[in-house]
Recover the amino acids of this structure.
């Protein structure tokens, strides 16, 4: 089983090591890491103007988790998902709201990327018949977001930088990214109508 999402209360945790994140960010800015794309979802749509998008997404995720607990087969599902790479042995000490706020702060991603992330997350849950829980939401969300960043953003950093932001080891994050991509069959395209549907439902 891969290591748990790192405890934010641990002073040695990358989640608290802001200086290392800033250094990594500055280093990668100097290297001018970019990905050129002729067509992305960002080129088709305008980013959301909602300044509370992080809070709305956090609330939505928590609402999904709450509804999952009400399902009759919840305990069986939890048990069957224990061996998943996305499942932590314990609930991470950082709330999903604080986690998303941290991600937004250090990555400076577009709102459109967050919405695309939700689309990918939904695809994963539906295609693999997985329920969202307090044990897997952090890892699943960040894996989905990492893929959305690489698909939708004009500029992005290496996984080493994102591992510092996520609190996961880089080697572990690489595995999660590949696993997530494979299990949605690399279905990354998001058309305008689908994007607008998710955006309007938030």
């Amino acid at each position: 089983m891969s290591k748990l999402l790192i405890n934010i209360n641990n002073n040695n945790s990358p989640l608290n090591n802001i200086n290392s994140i800033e250094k990594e960010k500055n280093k990668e800015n100097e290297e001018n890491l970019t990905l050129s794309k002729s067509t992305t979802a960002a080129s088709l749509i305008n980013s959301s103007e909602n300044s509370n998008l992080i809070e709305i997404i956090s609330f939505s995720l928590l609402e999904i988790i709450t509804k999952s607990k009400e399902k009759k087969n919840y305990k069986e599902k939890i048990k069957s998902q224990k061996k998943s790479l996305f499942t932590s042995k314990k609930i991470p000490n950082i709330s999903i709201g604080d986690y998303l706020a941290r991600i937004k702060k250090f990555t400076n991603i577009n709102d459109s990327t967050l919405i695309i992330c939700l689309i990918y997350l939904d695809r994963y849950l539906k295609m693999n018949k997985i329920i969202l829980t307090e044990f897997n939401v952090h890892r699943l969300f960040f894996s989905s977001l990492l893929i959305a960043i690489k698909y939708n953003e004009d500029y992005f950093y290496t996984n080493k930088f994102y591992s510092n932001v996520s609190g996961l080891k880089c080697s572990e994050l690489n595995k999660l990214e590949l696993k997530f991509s494979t299990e949605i069959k690399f279905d990354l395209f998001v058309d305008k109508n689908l994007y607008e549907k998710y955006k309007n439902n938030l």
Summary: Residues 1-19, 29-51 have pLDDT under 50 and may be disordered.
